[in-house]
Amino acid sequence: MSGFAFQVSAVGKAKKCGIKNALSARNGFVWVHLSTNNEHAQEWLANTAKLDDYLVDALTATETRPRCEQVGEGALLNLRGRSDDELTSSDPLASVRIWAIDRRVISVTRKKLLAVDTVEHCVAEGNVLDPGDLITEFATAITSDLDPDVAQLGDDLDECETQLDAEKVFELRRTVSRVRVQSIGYRRFLAPQRSALEKLATLPVGWLSDDDRLHLSAAADRAARMAEELESIRERAALTHEALTDLRAEQIDQRSLIISIAAMIFLPLTFLTGLYGMNVRGLWLADQPWAFDAIVGICVLTAVGVTGYFVRNHWLR
C-alpha cells in the first residue's frame, strides 16, 4: 500500500510519519493519503481508520464524479484534476476522494494527481493548520492547475480560427477535433465540481472556518468560469469544424468544376480523333493531302470555342 501521512500540530508544524501509526496523534490533525486502490487500502480504511462500509466503498470506487456529501460531522468530497498518467479522452482528469472530519483527513487517488504534490508542499511548509485549510488547498491547487490548460485550449482554437484556409484543412481539423474532445471531457467534470465546492462551502460543520468557506467559494467560482469557457470553446470548435468542412467542400467543388471543364473541352476533340481513327473508306477529306492540317485546325478551333463559351458565362474564374 503506497502513500504517505502527516501529523500537523496546532501551529502548523508538519511531521511526516508512517501510515500505520498516523492516526495515533493526540494533537493537531492528521492527513493520510493513499495512492492505491488495492485490498490493503480497503482493509486499512475499514479496520484501522474504522470507516463505515459506505465510506470505504466511496473512497475506493472505480468510477467517480465530483460530488460533496455530508456524513455526520464529516464531509465526503470527490474532485477531479490533471494527471501525468495516460488517461482516456472520455475521462481526461484523475480523481481524488477525500473524507474530512475534525482532526482527520483521508484522501485516496487511483491515478497520480498533480495537485497532491502542491498540497503536500504546502503542508510541509507549515501553511496548513486544520482540515479546512487542507481541503481549501486541494480545491485551490486543482483549479489553479486546470486554469492554464483551459486557457491553452482557447488559444489553440483562436489560432485555428485565424488560419482558416482550404490548403490547411486536414491539419486544422485535427487540432479543432482535439480541442473539442478535450473541452467536452473537461467540462463533464468541471460543471459538477463547481456544485460540489459550493455545497462544501455551505456545510454546517465546525472544522470549516469562515475563511475556508470564502476560499472554497472562490474555487467554485473559478471552476464555474472554466466550465463556461469550455462550453464556449466547444461551441466555437463546432462552428470552426463546420467552416473547415465548407472550405473543403468548396475546394472539392472547384476542382470538380475544373475537371468537368477540361472534360467538356476534350470531349469533341476525342470524338473527332476517334472518328478519323476508323479504318474505313468515305471519311471527309480522307483522300486530301492537307487533311491532317485541316483536322488539327478544326480541333484547335473547337477547343478555343468551348473555352470561350465557358469564359463568357463566367464558368472559369
Class from helix and strand fractions: alpha+beta
Q: N-to-C SSE series? A: EEEHHEEEEHHHHH
Number of helices: 7
**Strands ordered across the widest β-sheet:** 2-1-3-7-6-5-4
Which geometry do the CA atoms define? Answer: rod-shaped
Radius of gyration: 35 Å
Tell me what portion of residues adopts beta-strand conformation. 5-15%
* Main sheet makeup: 7 strands, mixed
Tell me about this structure:
Helix content is 57%, strand content 14%. By secondary structure, it is of the alpha+beta class. The protein has helices spanning 39-48, 53-59, 114-124, 131-162, 169-201, 210-275, 291-312; strands spanning 3-8, 14-17, 29-34, 67-71, 74-81, 94-101, 104-109. The protein has a seven-stranded mixed β-sheet, with helices on both faces.
Quick rundown:
The chain is α+β, with helices and mostly antiparallel strands.
Please name the defining characteristics of this protein.
rod-shaped, alpha+beta, 7 helices, single chain, 317 residues, 7-stranded mixed beta sheet
List the helices and strands and how they pair.
Layout: E1 3-8, E2 14-17, E3 29-34, H1 39-48, H2 53-59, E4 67-71, E5 74-81, E6 94-101, E7 104-109, H3 114-124, H4 131-162, H5 169-201, H6 210-275, H7 291-312
Parallel strand pairs: 3-7
Antiparallel strand pairs: 1-2, 1-3, 4-5, 5-6, 6-7
Helix pairs in contact: 3-4, 4-5, 4-6, 5-6, 6-7
